[in-house]
Amino acid sequence: MSPAPSEPGYSDAMAELERILAELEGDELDVDVLADRVQRAAELLTLCRARITRAQEDVDRIVTDLEAFERADDEPAGDD
User: Is residue 2 assigned to a domain?
Assistant: First the structure.
């Protein structure tokens, strides 16, 4: 599944999070911009967590399918 057009990919989201973190750690961040940056960081974290969860679910499903396939191959053929 592809991200929505306005939604960054995982790598882009992580890069943006790193830029925001660098801004937050710096002394030059305007207080008026602080809330916007924190809000955007929260959105990006939610996006990244969702991507990781989906990836883990995909991996779990693939592993389960492979294990089922291997079990089916290990079963002796019937006398049909």
Answer: no
3-state secondary structure the chain: CCCCCCCCCHHHHHHHHHHHHHHHHCCCCCHHHHHHHHHHHHHHHHHHHHHHHHHHHHHHHHHHHHHHHHHHHHCCCCCC
Kindly tell me if the per-residue pLDDT of 5 is higher than 60: no
Q: 25 lies in a domain? A: yes
For the entire predicted model, the pTM comes to 0.70
Examine residue 39 and state whether it is found in any structural domain, yes or no: yes
Report the distance separating Cα 22 and Cα 79, nearest Å: 68
Residue 38: give the domain boundaries: 10-74
